[in-house]
Amino acid sequence: MTPAQLKIAMVSPTLGTAFGLEQVLMLSVQGLRERGHEVFLIGESANESFPEGESKELISGLFSTPTLLAPQQLARTIHCFEKSLESFSPDIVHFLDQPHAEIIKTATSKYPCVLTAHTVSPTCPASHRLAGDHVCQKKSGWKCLLENRSTGCLGSFKTDLHRSHAILDFKLKKTATHKMKAIIAISQYVETTLLDNGFSKNQVKLIYNPLPEFKVEHKAFSPAPLILSACRLVPLKGIEYAIRALKLIEHLSWEYRIVGDGPLKTELQDLVKDLNLESRVIFLGKKERKETLDWMASAEIFLQPNIGPEGFGLSVAEAQALGTPTIAFDTPALNEIIENGKTGYLVTSKDTLALSQAIQKLLVDTDHRSRMSELGKSQTPRKFSKKKFIDDTLSLYQDVVMS
Q1: Is 179 exposed, middle or buried (0-12, 13-18, 19+ CB in 10 A)?
Q2: Which residues touch 400 (CB under 8 Å, ≥6 apart)?
Q3: By residue range, what is the domain housing residue 251?
C-alpha cells in the first residue's frame, strides 16, 4: 500500500464550508484528491455552502441519535452507516467529530479509524472544559456531577438526570474512541488535554488546522478606526468584556462591529444601551464568510475575548493572516496563535482594564500596529499552511494503515 492508493471515508456532522470544522474538512478533501487519493464524504446534513456536484451520503441520526430513548432509530442509523462504508470499502475512516459509541464501534471493528478532536469533547461531557471562571484541569467522569454544583459546568443540561445521561454518553464514547488508531489534536492545548485524560501518546498526534484559502473582494467602510469581533454570541466568547472595556476608552475614536448571532444578543444589546454606546457598537448579525473576511481585512483590531478555551481559534488566525492585529484574553488555544507583543496582545482573562489598555495601545500607536500587521501576514500563513497540514495528515494515514 502506497500513499497514492489510499481510499478515505471522511465522516462529519455537517458538510459544507459554513463553519471552521467544515472548512477544514473541504480543505482536506481538496488537498488529498490533489495528491491522488480517493475521498468519500458521509454526513448527517449538508448546508447550502456544500459544493454542487460533490457526491455525498447523508445518514439521519448519524451524530444525534439519543440511544436510550430511540434504540430502533440507532439500529437503523448503524445499518445505513455500515452499508455506506461497505459500498466504498475505505482504507481509513476519518471522523471529524465523535458520533455515538456504537457507531464508533461499528467502524473500528472493521476499519482503521482516525478522529480529529476539533474541540475538547473527547475529554469533557460539556465539550468546553470551562468550570465557572477558570479552565478545568480535572479528569472528567461521574464526579462532574459534584463539580457542577459549585461551577455550573454542566449547566447546559436541564436536570441531574440529563447530566447523568450526558456523562454516560461521554464515557461510552471515550471508551470506544480508545479503539481508534489515532486522534488528531488541532492545538497543543487539545493534545495536552487528551494526554492528561487517558489517551496514549502513541495515539495522539498534533496537526494544526490549516488556514482556508481566502480572497478579500473589497474592504468595508467605517467612519472611525474599526474594531471587530466575529463569533457566536454565547458566554464563552466574552463579548460582554469587550463592550465594557471599550466603555473605558470611549474618549478615543473607534467603532466596534460584531459579526455573529446567538442567544446572548438581546442581553448584549441591552448592555450597550445601558452604557450609552448604541452609536458606536453595532451588531451586524450573521454574515457570509466572504463578507466576514472583508470586515476582518478592514479592521484595525480584531477582538477575541474568550473567557474559556478554544480547540484552535480559526478566526484569530484568519485575522492575523489578513494583517489585522488581534487582542484576546490569555486562554487556550488562542495563546498558541497570537504572539504576545508581536502579532497582537494577550491579557489576563476577564480583566476589562487590561483589555482596554491593550486596545488603546493599538489605536494610538499606528506604527506598532503596522508592524504587527506585517508580521501576522508573513508568519501566520506559514505556520498554518495547507501543504504542511496535508503532509502531516498523509504521514499519519500511512502510519495507521501500516500499523
Answers
A1: middle
A2: 92, 112, 114, 181, 182
A3: 226-383
pLDDT band of residue 176 (cuts 50, 70, 90) is: very high
Domain CATH number, residue 294 = 3.40.50.2000
For residue 221, give the amino acid letter.
Answer: F
CA 254 from centroid of its chain's CA atoms: 29
Whole-number mean pLDDT of the chain?
92
Q: What is the largest CA-CA distance in the chain?
A: 65
Tell me: do 198 and 249 sit in the same domain.
no
Residues 282-311: pLDDT tens digits? 999 999 888 899 999 999 999 999 998 999
Question: Does 135 map to a domain?
Answer: no
Residue pointed to by grid coordinates 476577564 = 350
Spatial distance between the Cα atoms of 317 and 392, rounded to a whole number of angstroms: 19
pLDDT of residue 1: 45
Report the alpha-carbon distance of residue 326 to residue 165 in Å, rounded.
39
Query: Which residue from 319, 335, 292 is spatially nearest to 380, judged by alpha carbons?
Result: 319
Which of 280, 303, 293, 320 has the alpha carbon at shortest distance from 228?
A: 303
Q: At what angle do helices 160-177 and 144-151 cross, to 10 degrees?
A: 130
Q: What is the DSSP string of 54-69?
A: ---EE-TTTTT--GGG
- Phi/psi of residue 328, each to 5°? -145, 160
Cell numbers found for residue 157: 443540561
Q: What is the pTM of this model?
A: 0.91
Cis peptide before 333 (omega within 30 of 0): yes
For strands 130-131 and 134-135, give the pairing: antiparallel
Cell of 178: 480508545
Residue 52: predicted pLDDT: 81
Residue-wise pLDDT for 249-268, tens only, equals 999 999 999 999 999 999 99
Query: How many domains, the chain?
Result: 2
Looking at the structure, do residues 389 and 369 belong to the same domain, yes or no?
Answer: no
For residue 7, give the nearest of 35, 40, 29, 38 by alpha carbon: 38
pLDDT at res. 187:
96
Asked if residue 84 belongs to a domain, the reply is: yes
Is residue 136 one of the residues assigned to a domain?
Answer: no
Indicate whether 76 and 205 sit together in one domain. Answer: yes
Residues 329 and 392 in one domain: no
- pLDDT above 80 (res 4): no
Q: At what angle do helices 366-383 and 352-364 cross, to 10 degrees?
A: 100
Asked if residue 166 is part of any domain, the answer here is no
